[in-house]
Amino acid sequence: MKLHQKRLLYAGLIVLLVVIWIFYAANGPQTTAVLAGTVRAATLLALGAMCGMIGERSGVVNIGIEGQFLLSAFAAFTVASMTSSLFLGTIAGIGMGLLMGWMLAAMAVGLKVDQIIAGTVLNIAALGLTSFFYDRSRSLGVGKYTNIDLGPLADIPLVGTVLFSRPPLTYLTMALLIVVHVALFRSVWGMRTRAIGEHPGAADTVGIDVLRLRYFNVTIAGGLAGLGGAYLALEAVGTFSRAMSGGRGFLALAVMIFGRRTPFGAYAAALFFGFTTALQNQFQLNNTFDIPPQFVGMLPFIVTILVVALSGLIGSMRDPAALGQTYEKG
Amino acid sequence: MSRSLLRTISIPIAAVVFGLVIGAILILTQNASPGTAYKALLVGGAGDSDAVLRTLQKATPLIFGGLAVAFAFKAGMFNIGGQGQLLVGAVFAAGVGFGIDGLPLVIHLPVALLAGGIAGAVWGGIAGTLKATTGAHEVIVTIMLNFVAGNLTDWLAANPWKDNSGSNIVARTPLVEDSAVIPTFGAVPVGFLLAVITAITCWMILERTTFGFEVKSVGNNRHAADYAGIRVGRIMALTMAVAGLLAGLGGAVESLGVDGRFEAGVNVGLGFEGITIALLARANPLGVVPAALLVGLMEAGAARMQFKAGVAPELIDVIQALILFFVAAPIILRWVLRMRHDASEQLQLGAGWGRS
């Protein structure tokens, strides 16, 4: 990041904190509810965005995150309900995510199916399979993941409730943001990953097995989406319902682009999108303003379109050069 | 039958067969009989004239949805926004359908259809224009527009255009005037004929006109088309508008011919079925008709399958996904069937989200 960009970022953060403080002084409980809702909604988007970015950094578009969320949520819910263990349910969700990541890799990398079509196959299959096997009479049996207070940190007003009194998978996601950041930008794996996304031919020349690394990355990334599915079923909602991912897998892609395919950038974008969701919920609960909820609901999608369009115009954001292309060893 | 046609249709047919076979295994896991289930499916979709009418009705919006994807494919673009284009088409056709009265059928019906088509064209055109002017990838824009359309049509059906008759609390418009209802001749709904004519028109446009040639040139090689003097951006914008028009017409036919009104959330999924149908038809407008009839038949028969064999109707969605998988990855079928590999059959669209 350049110096003036850094200054702009810090200035923006300070303004944001001041605004939050003013709102908190004016209406404490409502501000807390909106911000807690923001963090809650951002977790799923951040996991999906990380899944997408690992794929795209290695040159594979993953448009199947929506389906990965949905089928993983189903697996997590079903296993948790059968074993009465949220932990085993979470593992099952991650496992299903890995399996779907592997399937995407098998289609897009192995069979060289068009990547967007491969992702679409995952989405349609997930919707069909979960609807077909959905058992309305099944319930979770155990309660969903509950908040864990991080000692005295949780007692800080506002910040304590919003950040340090959260359920476990939210903490895990925050930790994963750091892990993925370090892995992508500070490790050999990350350098190779970015290399096969930018110039697979060159990477091949220096001895990186492009197809194998893409296979591996897309599969591992699926695990992150799988965790997202588990989060959705076992922490956010506490049950499974048909098509419950509700388009958030697609929003995660937008979050990823918005956040320039970096974990922290994506989390900032996820918080912004989460904020619009939380605001929408508050509006519906309180009838604060006379804005129809549907128009607030449109906001993140319209913002995404504007961001994608503007980034093309300004040219400040650039896709990995080999994104979307299958690689043939020459 | 010529050899090339046989070659072309062998993959889609094999994909359908494989989809049904795996579907049968799924039926067995539910302790039901695949024979009973598939027989009920067939009878429910084609057993008598009522069943045929149901199939044709189901197939009609599917033809439009499939064409909307197939047409964009020809210019190398992936229109995943059929859902949104269809929704705006459906709601605006219904709006004109119930909002105006006193017009004769010969004027009211075409105007209502056109309103749906234009709404869809605008929706698709936004994505195409953004692609042409800013390079914003049509896949991400059309997905986002789907959600915007979902919210917009929900709002329209729940607020200004809400059906306030009796005790209705559902987000839906009033029934359209009789003069805007698509009539039926015997077992053949006029909407279906319209869909078939539209499919033939699309084929004519693509194969017999300059515009069609330009669309395909852009699809084959954007840079070569540019070099040859074709205005690539304009063609991409127009193609998406045409695709949106087709999907919007599909929504209009759904509102005016099947449901008689717009109801929020009724035709969820139609946009995605359009993708399956377009790929099954190998993006050929004429192939879209049989592909849509097949899917329409499965949907028309699903209720009977559930009733007779106790199989959840969602099995249809699974089979569709399997068919999509096999047509998208023909290499698997070719390996099983020991066919020669033909690289030209593989569809390729992928590119980044930004400029390309």
Q: How would you characterize the overall build of this protein?
A:
- The complex is a heterodimer of chains A (330) and B (356).
- Chain A has 13 helices and 2 strands; from the N terminus they run H-H-H-H-H-E-H-E-H-H-H-H-H-H-H.
- Chain A has helices spanning 3-26, 28-57, 65-83, 86-110, 115-133, 159-163, 168-186, 188-198, 200-205, 210-237, 248-258, 263-286, 293-314, and strands at 148-149, 165-166.
- Chain A has a two-stranded antiparallel ribbon with strand order 1-2.
- Chain B is built from 14 helices and 2 strands.
- In chain B, strands 1-2 form a two-stranded antiparallel ribbon.
- In chain B, a hairpin with a 2-residue loop joins strand 1 and strand 2 (188-189).
- Chains A and B meet through helix 5, helix 11 and helix 13 of A and helix 5, helix 6, helix 11 and helix 13 of B.
Quickly describe the structure.
The complex is a heterodimer of chains A (330) and B (356). Chain A has a single domain (3-314), classed as Orthogonal Bundle (ABC transporter involved in vitamin B12 uptake, BtuC). Helix content of chain A is 74%, strand content 1%.
- Second rung of CATH, namely the architecture of chain A: Orthogonal Bundle
**How far is the first residue's CA from the last residue's CA of chain B?**
41 Å
Can you give the mean pLDDT of chain A? 87
Q: What's the CATH first level of chain A? A: Mainly Alpha
SSE pattern of chain B, N- to C-terminal: HHHHHHEEHHHHHHHH
* H/E element order of chain A: HHHHHEHEHHHHHHH
Q: Unreliable runs of chain B, pLDDT <50, ≥5 residues?
A: 350-356
